[in-house]
Amino acid sequence: MAERAALEELVRLQGERVRGLKQQKASAEQIEEEVAKLLKLKAQLGPDEGKQKFVLKTPKGTRDYSPRQMAVREKVFDVIVSCFKRHGAEVIDTPVFELKETLTGKYGEDSKLIYDLKDQGGELLSLRYDLTVPFARYLAMNKLTNIKRYHIAKVYRRDNPAMTRGRYREFYQCDFDIAGQFDPMIPDAECLKIMCEILSSLQIGDFLVKVNDRRILDGMFAICGVPDSKFRTICSSVDKLDKVSWEEVKNEMVGEKGLAPKVADRIGDYVQQHGGVSLVEQLLQDPELSQNKQALEGLGDLKILFEYLTLFGIADKISFDLSLARGLDYYTGVIYEAVLLQTPVRAGEEPLGVGSVAAGGRYDGLVGMFDPKGRKVPCVGLSIGVERIFSIVEQRLEALEEKVRTTETQVLVASAQKKLLEERLRLVSELWDAGIKAELLYKKNPKLLNQLQYCEEAGIPLVVIIGEQELKDGVIKLRSVASREEVDVRREDLVEEIKRRTSQPFCIC
Amino acid sequence: MAERAALEELVRLQGERVRGLKQQKASAEQIEEEVAKLLKLKAQLGPDEGKQKFVLKTPKGTRDYSPRQMAVREKVFDVIVSCFKRHGAEVIDTPVFELKETLTGKYGEDSKLIYDLKDQGGELLSLRYDLTVPFARYLAMNKLTNIKRYHIAKVYRRDNPAMTRGRYREFYQCDFDIAGQFDPMIPDAECLKIMCEILSSLQIGDFLVKVNDRRILDGMFAICGVPDSKFRTICSSVDKLDKVSWEEVKNEMVGEKGLAPKVADRIGDYVQQHGGVSLVEQLLQDPELSQNKQALEGLGDLKILFEYLTLFGIADKISFDLSLARGLDYYTGVIYEAVLLQTPVRAGEEPLGVGSVAAGGRYDGLVGMFDPKGRKVPCVGLSIGVERIFSIVEQRLEALEEKVRTTETQVLASHWWSSSVSRSSRTGSSSSAQWPAGKRWMSEEKTLWKKSKGEQASPFASAELSKLSANWDWHYLRLRRLCIYT
């Protein structure tokens, strides 16, 4: 036993060592070595079958949804799904795991965050990391050349979750994508329209949608003199401009990433700019940028986009922002990101973005990676970051002290005296058969007070009370829980009366 | 390269060897050994990073849902969820994986069918095998003593899928459970009422709900003389009576499982019986069974249950069936299973059950396994087997030649539409704005479509539609809209 305890201690220490190395971002080989040592030690401990430990937790980075959280979630999904449907999208679903090979090579550095399944003698599987790669696989598999689809499902990433900040390892994504070869920028504009409709309907405050284009970024870096090999890493520095100052970003680019200061300055001249379509016009006239073919393409498309966005009535919510870089792995054209704006503390200050709630862009090359003949299917889409929205809506409901019901029960069937279970069962069955949402307490002889209290706690608006005398008279008491007003209703009229009261828009129960 | 090809061939052969052993149900150690060999060979092959193979398939036993299948699924879930809500259930959700320890020791022999996640240096995880164990974990974790909840989600089992028969490795379960200490049989009766409401609303044909009780089964085996050690295995033989004859079942019990023939005969006297509450009464008078305390408890509760089911108006759908045994691992009381009935080929024959579509029962000991102090929370619940129902509904829709709506686009921004806007006065709309007129137009269409559905199969023959306009263009557009709508 002492042996085992010592072994368990070694496992614990080695586990901490591994965690420490990961935090320090040690080299991949070093981490792998220490993980292998850890696995060996664990193997020595032997299997744990039968030992009943009382593990009362969900895995790290995951959580249950309580009924209250489900009610919030349902409201949010309702808004999102009706918007997707309003725009004519079909819906699909895919398995929670894919063949490991399907996900391999699609996520760059983030590949280490993929959950693998154990090799149990069959196919090698991994949990999906997003909904975009499964979508591309679906298109190629079914040889589809065009579709407009939405997909709402959970995805899995072995992140270091900061759960207080809403970062989970299992979380929902709501994706909408348009695949197909179409005339330029119309579907792209519709995606932005959808994003704006959803964020407005959710009533989570003012927002701003930043737009940029990968070709403009690439062109910009080229004319500033960024070496090709540094494109990605400079991109991720530039992307930080929404959180830190230009000085800090410049220091990182020059100090850490070895960029020539002059080049950094030239980048600075561009990326600190943001504006509307006038900025697009201005850059189209820029003597250097207009010499770059890629940048011209990007700017030309953005000009068309802004025309469509104006026709869609949302141009005032869109900002062409040269610092928007985003994870550019598979994006090939326009990219966008929506941020919520905090009301400024002092008048005259610009609103501060507090983090993105939705994002997307065009990715024309992904499906081609799945097609044996490399046939391309251009795609553009968006993803709503609902976990953040859940928190915001939950907070808002708490602040308003709005009571969120977790059931939809309309009537409780109650009894005033003992030995009335039979009547309650008969009556509640009648209500169910008539489509009325009803409950009864699972007690043979419940006290009336307890039954009324149950209604109050659950927010049930109506209660029918069966009483001995009323039974003889052929009536039932129908009571409004809120107002405590009671009427006698004839048994045969009860269903009708309940339906009448519950069908009115503002329940006058 | 030839080396690699040879290695790949070895891996393939070893993989087949492993599969063969599993099919023959070889010993666990033997299988483990061969799997270890397979893993070693694969490790020699090395990692496959970067090599772009065109793998265009979903994993074995899983499938995508196309828009059409999603439309079917949505219809079915709508029926089920409204029933759960009508009965006052809350809804919860849990993660797709649990700590491996949470699932360990809960599924008996089926434990080998659990999907494990790779040990990547953190917690050991497994994909959930059902929704009941996560529910028990949720109750214990939140120290809840009563709740009425439903949960609709996918579960994962490394079965040998027979996909033509609708057996998948990833599939939906719709669970409804009532947890809490209550007066006997009321929640149990409500579960059966819910099952009947759902199966009726889905309109997938006639069905029957078989009911039994674990205590009755245990008591029955005891008085027949089944040794305690053989209870489970005899149970699973008896459970096959819905598919095979009594002779076959008896042969298995006596021939394969070493039961004394006399004991088998005595079991046979009981388990071939099924009926209504009168059978319960009869067994309560049975000289031997009534001596067994457990059986008496079970029979007493079933009697109360039948009273409540009569008040709920569903007693005619319920059959007390002594051969219903089900996977009894965590059930402690009443158990039930709903089967669809095939219309008999010849008149006078009894309808044949074609497989279960829903099941459940009472399980009072599960939550206690999670509570550090072993505190019990009694539970009763049901699970709807929706995958079978999806197939049936899909087939039914095809048979009726109904087109399933896959989009809810109300207005086609098309040339046709713009030419019909000028005719909008016929629908009573004077507005030339597209969206509002479209909505009103569609709702009138809906009314007409519903009416015409009742009269004849084809909407085109509806007299009311042709009344609307003699103009061919107008009529064509409306017909086209109906096609899309339906």
TrEMBL record, chain A:
What cellular-component terms does GO give this entry? Answer: cytosol; mitochondrion
Q: Which Enzyme Commission number(s) are listed?
A: 6.1.1.21
Protein's UniProt keywords contain Coiled coil: yes
Q: Extract the InterPro entries matched here.
A: aa-tRNA-synth_II, aa-tRNA-synth_II/BPL/LPL, Anticodon-bd, Anticodon-bd_dom_sf, His-tRNA-ligase, HisRS-like_core, HisRS/HisZ, HisRS_anticodon
- The segment(s) forming the WHEP-TRS domain are 3-59
Catalyses which reaction? Answer: tRNA(His) + L-histidine + ATP = L-histidyl-tRNA(His) + AMP + diphosphate + H(+)
PROSITE patterns in the record, alphabetically?
A: AA_TRNA_LIGASE_II, WHEP_TRS_1, WHEP_TRS_2
Q: Which domain of life is it from?
A: Eukaryota
Annotated Aminoacyl-transfer RNA synthetases class-II family profile domain ranges read 37-393
Task: Report the main location listed first in the record.
Answer: cytoplasm
GO biological process per UniProt:
histidyl-tRNA aminoacylation; mitochondrial translation
User: What's in the keyword line of the UniProt record?
Assistant: Acetylation, Aminoacyl-tRNA synthetase, ATP-binding, Coiled coil, Cytoplasm, Ligase, Nucleotide-binding, Phosphoprotein, Protein biosynthesis
Q: Which residues form the signal peptide?
A: none
Molecular function as annotated in GO: ATP binding; histidine-tRNA ligase activity; identical protein binding; RNA binding
* Coiled coil (residue ranges): 390-417
Top EC class of this enzyme: ligase
**Subunit structure comment from the entry:** Homodimer.
State its role. Answer: Catalyzes the ATP-dependent ligation of histidine to the 3'-end of its cognate tRNA, via the formation of an aminoacyl-adenylate intermediate (His-AMP). Plays a role in axon guidance.
What PANTHER family does the annotation carry? HISTIDINE--TRNA LIGASE, CYTOPLASMIC, HISTIDYL-TRNA SYNTHETASE
NCBIfam families with a match to the protein in the record: hisS
Name the chain's protein: Histidine--tRNA ligase, cytoplasmic
Organism of origin is: Enhydra lutris kenyoni (northern sea otter)
TrEMBL record, chain B:
GO molecular function terms noted in the UniProt entry: ATP binding; histidine-tRNA ligase activity; identical protein binding; RNA binding
Keyword annotations for this protein, in alphabetical order, are:
Aminoacyl-tRNA synthetase, ATP-binding, Ligase, Nucleotide-binding, Protein biosynthesis
Q: Which EC number(s) are documented for this chain?
A: 6.1.1.21
| KW Nucleotide-binding (keyword) present | yes
Q: Looking at the UniProt record for this protein, which Gene Ontology cellular component terms does it annotate, in alphabetical order? A: cytosol; mitochondrion
> Which reaction(s) does its UniProt entry say it catalyses?
tRNA(His) + L-histidine + ATP = L-histidyl-tRNA(His) + AMP + diphosphate + H(+)
What Gene Ontology terms for biological process does this UniProt record contain? histidyl-tRNA aminoacylation; mitochondrial translation
Matching Pfam families, A to Z?
A: tRNA-synt_His, WHEP-TRS
Domain WHEP-TRS, which positions? 3-59
Residue ranges of every copy of the Aminoacyl-transfer RNA synthetases class-II family profile domain listed in the record: 37-393
SMART domains referenced in this protein's UniProt entry, alphabetically: WHEP-TRS
Identify its protein family: Belongs to the class-II aminoacyl-tRNA synthetase family.
PANTHER family, alphabetically?
A: HISTIDINE--TRNA LIGASE, CYTOPLASMIC, HISTIDYL-TRNA SYNTHETASE
Name of protein:
histidine--tRNA ligase
What is the source species?
Enhydra lutris kenyoni
Q: Which gene encodes it?
A: LOC111140831
